[in-house]
Amino acid sequence: MNTEIIKVSARSLPKLTAGAIAAVIREGNQAEVQSVGAGAANQAIKAVAIARGYGREEGYDLICRPQFTQIKIEEEEKTAIALVVEALQQPV
Amino acid sequence: MNTEIIKVSARSLPKLTAGAIAAVIREGNQAEVQSVGAGAANQAIKAVAIARGYGREEGYDLICRPQFTQIKIEEEEKTAIALVVEALQQPV
Known about the structure:
Structural class of chain A: alpha+beta
Largest sheet of chain A: 4 strands, mixed
Shape of chain A: globular
Order of helices and strands of chain A: EHEHEE
Oligomer: homodimer
Strand content of chain A: 35-45%
Largest interface: A-B, 22 and 22 residues
Number of strands of chain A: 4
Distance between the termini of chain A: 17 Å
Strand order of the largest sheet of chain A: 1-2-4-3
Helix content of chain A: 25-40%
């Protein structure tokens, strides 16, 4: 299982991010949704909630593990929130 | 297993919320962390990330299931984000 990183900003559209998460999960991988700041974190968590809806329709349950991670943006170290998303049951 | 609701605002301290989540989990229950708005959602997700650190020290992994939920605040219906948190392995 690979981990694919999806970066989310405050202006990201949660539905589009949710589609990206679902695509990663369908390939049998896990998604790490990274955000910096409250606006971005909010879009990230909404995206995971929407992706969970897609998963339900396809017969699997998406769970997420939130954790802090250090990322570099324009040579500056920032603390990001990473939501590691995976399917508890694989799609049938 | 009961579900205990923990309400989080933009001014909530993530460490305190994390302690509340850990207390619910230790009792063998699940926590539903509710927030309305970006600032509150950010504090909520930080609290879950911190609580996961406590869980690791105690030998269990906390996962969360984000979902939308309707709540009433001062007679007004609001869409909240609920982070349903549970332990994958129970504390040893």
